[in-house]
Amino acid sequence: MSAITAAPPKSGNALSRVIAASMVGTVIEWYDFFIFGSMAALLLGPVFFPSDNAALSTMAAMATFAVAFLVRPLGAVVLGHFGDKFGRRSTLVLALLLMGGSTLFVGLIPTYAQIGVAAPILLIVCRVVQGFALGGEYGGAVLMVVENSQARNRRGFFGAFLSAASPVGFLLATAVIALTTLTTTDEQMAAWGWRIPFLTSAIMVGIGLYIRIKLEESDAFKELQEKADTEAKSAQDVPFIAMLRSYPVQVLKSILVPMGVQAGYYMTTVFLLSFARDFGGFDVGQANSMVMIAALFFLLFIFVGGLWSDNAPRWVPMSVGLGGFAVAVFVMFPMVQSGNFVLATAAFVLGLAFVGLLYGPMSIYMAELFAGGVRYTGISFGYQTASAITGGLTPVFAVALLEQTGSHIPVAGYAAVMMGIAFAGLMLQRNRTNWDKA
């Protein structure tokens, strides 16, 4: 494969507009996704899966949350194909439309008490659409930023903005939930208040679509299109097949390394949130406040990790994040179980700080694994396959382990093993990059 020529550098203002437009849409999509995750941990169980056993009800809601993760690799392959073949921008617009529409519909679904088993079925369908859409979001948003940045020694920093979209979306989601809980009683929240955060997303999706439609295609993709116009393309030129054939080790790395992010993040923001309610004695408002505070530190450490990766090999801050979380997870549960608000909040901060160091360089790390012609597909498929393996299933496994053993130690052990697997992937060809290949 030949190298592509460098695109003319964008001005600072032009790059800022690309970052803002990419980040706004991604923030909204993560808001939609996290609204469901938080509601699944706190309220959706009794509404859609009523049971005399509260743990079973919560587990059913968590399983519904996990369904979207299972379909995300399919969304990655399909939307990644369109993104590599026809453009990053148009694919991102489609992803936002699908995500926003399914989230709005969740807010309109009748409850189990109103229509019976049809309610959880409709909920699951919405989750499938959400997962499919998010499968194509991350890779495209990353590429819109890093492919428009010509400063090689700043790509980690610029890529961190896309990683930062996750905690910003989470902060926005938890803020809306907190505001809703403050303005409604517990009875009102259980009856209809839970719908408000889902319905609110319609306004934000409209704003995001307006901004994203105005976004220009990335410079690197324009170059690939120009090259495609002058070269004959074979029938086998399918991004997914080309990716598997040309980059088998990179595909493995792109799955194993994000498994650490997924396991650590969802262990902290979903399972530990439920643990704080059930074993720490904290109410919904307190639990959300803890995560909101921790998300601010998450945001900070994402940029620390991104900047660090511009001044050292990418794997250095990522290794610190993996190793730190593997140790910290064993003390996070006792800290939450203490019932002390400050100590419990510190547990959330500790977990998300280490995940932030890992997640900050993740965008550029994934982009550098693959050449331009399969980059959208490669980033999306690897990241979303990791999501399917450890993301949505981590809270489900954690609930099951805690229910069966009555101890948090096996839960922490599971998280530590996931960090070890991610570290093994990180060490494979750790300094090799395919950024300049077409």
Automatic annotation (TrEMBL):
Membrane topology recorded in Swiss-Prot or TrEMBL: Multi-pass membrane protein
The keyword Transport appears for this protein: yes
Localization of this protein: Cell membrane
UniProt-listed PROSITE patterns: MFS
Gene3D superfamilies given in the database record: MFS general substrate transporter like domains
InterPro entries: MFS_dom, MFS_sugar_transport-like, MFS_trans_sf
Major facilitator superfamily (MFS) profile domain residues: 18-432
Keyword annotations from UniProtKB, A to Z: Cell membrane, Membrane, Transmembrane, Transmembrane helix, Transport
Membrane-spanning ranges: 30-49, 55-80, 92-115, 121-146, 158-180, 192-213, 255-275, 287-308, 315-335, 341-360, 381-402, 408-428
Main location: membrane
Protein name, entry field: MHS family MFS transporter
